[in-house]
Amino acid sequence: MTDETISRVEAFPLRYAEPNNNGKTRHVTLVRLETAGGAVGWGEAITGSEDAALAMKVIVDRGFRERLIDRDARDVEAIWAEFRDSTYWSGNGGIVTFAISAIDMALWDLAGRIAGPASPAARRQAPRPRSGGLVDHLRHRRSRRHRPAVCRSQSARLPGVERRLGARPVDRLRPRCRA
Q1: Is domain 6-125 classified as CATH 3.90.226.10?
Q2: Within 10 A of 4 (CB to CB), how many other CB atoms are there?
Q3: Is pTM beyond 0.85 here?
Q4: Which of 4, 35, 61, 147 is the most buried (most CB within 10 A)?
């Protein structure tokens, strides 16, 4: 077992009061992966209900834990593809996908920690988002309050801020951004 192999997998269903929804109770499930060398990666899934949070914990504990143990934490894309392919009949798109998403997030966290903060290898391996994300959302009239932040990110060219609308660069939307 090398320092980069996964030695521990844990899932934590949590309950919290959502401050943006009048304190209503919400649920998330956190996934913690630890390598033999002691590096730790975290992922999360907003599971919504208590039942979904608990179900996701069972899926991680019984469905994925043993398949993650002794795997190289840097092999993120292969693990993701294997899990997606192997869960086709058990629920791609539901709680199983929440679990895969949280594991994927924890694996990328681990891969970055193993590579180091300024490693060119970590930057090359980082996933490149393909959706418009917030920018797609900004086309909706109720979301205009977010435009100033996106416009600032466009002008500042902040790293890690998605500036694409599908396959088109967001710069084409610049006329909507006022100085």
Answers
A1: no
A2: 18
A3: no
A4: 35
- Given the DSSP bridges, would you call strands 24-35 and 6-18 parallel, antiparallel or unpaired? antiparallel
How high is the mean pLDDT in each 10-residue block of the chain (179 residues)?
91 93 92 95 92 95 95 93 85 86 94 77 56 42 53 50 45 45
CA distance 168 to 119: 29
**What residue segments make up the domains of the chain, in order of their start?**
6-125, 134-176
Give 123's Cβ-side CA count (13 Å radius): 6
C-alpha of 109 from chain center: 9
Q: Where are the beta strands (DSSP E) in the chain?
A: 6-18, 24-35, 40-48, 164-165, 168-169
Calculate ∠ Cα 108-138-163, nearest 5°. 45
